[in-house]
Amino acid sequence: MLKPHSDNFDVIIAGGGPAGASAAIHLARGGVRVLLTEQKKFPRAKLCGEFISPECRAHFERLGVASEMIASGPALLDETVFYSSKGHHVAVPSKWFGGRAAFGLSRAVMDEVLLRSAAANGAVVYEGASVTEPLLDGERVVGVRVKIDGSSRDFRAPITLDATGRARILSRKISSGNSKRPSLVAFKAHFRKTRVAPGACEIYFYPGGYGGLSTVEGDTSNLCFIISAEHVKRCNSDPETVLRECVMKNRRAAHTLESAEVCSEWLSASWERFGRQRPSPAPGLLAIGDSAAFIDPFTGSGMLMALESGELVAQAILRHDSRTSLEADFTAGYRRAFDSRLRICGLLRRAAFSPRLAELGVAICGASERFRNRLARATRAQPKPDKFLPHNSLLE
Ligand SMILES: Cc1cc2nc3c(=O)[nH]c(=O)nc-3n(C[C@H](O)[C@H](O)[C@H](O)COP(=O)(O)OP(=O)(O)OC[C@H]3O[C@@H](n4cnc5c(N)ncnc54)[C@H](O)[C@@H]3O)c2cc1C
To answer: Which residue's alpha carbon is at the smallest distance from atom 2 of ligand 1?
Structure first.
């Protein structure tokens, strides 16, 4: 049953992943009345590489969740190693992105810490509450309809955030563009007894896609891979067959996964495209996280972008006054922050899905550390000085 909260808020956030939850924390701390509505009940497993890039730690500090993340016992990942099909490899140290290790932490844990923190900071959080459609006043979004416990309820706010991830539930309902057939499928499961190098996130290229293997908390490794829908069809849509027939065509993957045992359910998802959507699809509606742009997973920076855009939207809302357009202000800030890296990733994408180009890319990057460093950093914002980070030896 819904608690008897008011139906009126300052901001409604649809989706409680890292984008929605982080925006909720920043806004609630700024005194904004926030409703966050999430379709699942947390903790829940989530299809993801679970590589939390080093820059996320500064966000966790600002969100007040850094010590809880550390207490969850994440694996510390010092480097990402890219393996071509033939086994040639090149490493990108995590310190290039801010001087510290990345975390390997399951999304079940990370997302729950953020969602509970949103509630602790004063946001009203409903779980098991699915947003079904925007409420409209002309073209303006003035709230959402939410399905919970089998019945619908309307909530109103002058600002609504679409943070429903790649589903883009609200943005899709507003824009009438045709959706394409999904051309890519991703799978994820947790494994024991892999031979992944400790402290490394390993990325494997193979015909039709690429995948990542790294340690998360405990003695578990997370394997997450992407592959063309055609390859999946040829393998009767069975993840273990795709793993054997496609992923393990990569020599390094064949070695690390030879005796691995799956210890979770397989999750899968399909989608039609990467790249940026409209940060403000309609007056009163702003999109953040994957709803605004889906950056290629080989960058390991989707969660970073979710946290960055959650913070960006909160800043735009908190400084907004009636003399300016919130939608225009947020869109301009969004483009400044993300367009350049999204363009670079668009260029690198071709290599990621072609074993020959991936082989060449690994060779070129291996030949010049300077080039590799510049390319890796171009997939991110330039690191900011750590002015927000108090010294904490646990974070070193
Ligand atoms: C194969 C793959 C591997 C990846 N690996 C990595 C990685 O290693 N590192 C990394 O940083 N990024 C990775 N990413 C990207 C990362 O997962 C996303 O960028 C990140 O989850 C985006 O966060 P978000 O909050 O925008 O969306 P999500 O995390 O998708 O959260 C959206 C939330 O909205 C909820 N929701 C959906 N519909 C509704 C609705 N109707 N009503 C209410 N709630 C709803 C969902 O249940 C979900 O909890 C990967 C992505 C893929 C596909």
So the answer is: 48
Task: Identify the segments of the chain with pLDDT beneath 70.
Answer: 1-5, 99, 176-179, 382-396
Ligand 1 atom with minimal separation from the 212 CA: 8
Q: Which two tokens stand for residue 15?
A: 């989706």
At residue 80, what are phi and psi to the nearest 5 degrees? Answer: -115, 125
323-362: per-residue pLDDT in tens? 889 999 999 999 999 999 999 988 888 888 888 898 899 9
> Rounded distance, CA 105 to CA 33, Å?
30
Neighbours of 126 (CB within 10 A): 21
Which amino acid makes up residue 145? R
Q: Which atom of ligand 1 is nearest to the CA of 51?
A: 8
Considering just the CA atoms, what is the radius of gyration of the chain in Å? Answer: 21
pTM of the model: 0.94
The DSSP bridge pattern shows strands 79-83 and 200-206 to be: parallel
Q: Indicate whether residue 172 lines ligand 1 (CB < 6 A).
A: no
Q: How far apart are CA 38 and CA 164, in angstroms?
A: 8
pLDDT at 175: 83
DSSP, residue by residue, 277-303: --S-SBTTEEE-GGGTEE--GGGS-HH
Instruction: Answer whether 191 contacts ligand 1 (Cβ < 6 A).
Output: no
| Cα–Cα distance, 286 to 288 (Å, whole number) | 7
What is the end-to-end Cα distance of the chain in Å, rounded? 44
300 CA: nearest ligand 1 atom: 9
The pLDDT value recorded for residue 275 is 80
Calculate how far, in angstroms, residue 86's C-alpha sits from the geometric centre of ligand 1.
31
pLDDT at res. 353:
87
Q: Which residues lie closer than 8 Å to 176 by C-beta, 6 or more apart? A: none
| The two structure tokens encoding residue 292 | 């605004």
Output the CA 166–ligand 1 centroid distance in Å. Answer: 7
pLDDT of residue 351: 84
Q: Which residues of 164-175 are buried (b: 16+ CB within 10 A; e: fewer)?
A: bbbbbbbbbbbe
- Written as six digits, the tokens of 295 are 């950056």
Dump strand ranges (E) for 46-88: 51-52, 75-77, 79-83
User: Which atom of ligand 1 is least distant from the CA of 294?
Assistant: 19
Ligand 1 pocket member 293 (CB < 6 A): no
Instruction: Check residue 389 and give its pLDDT.
Output: 35
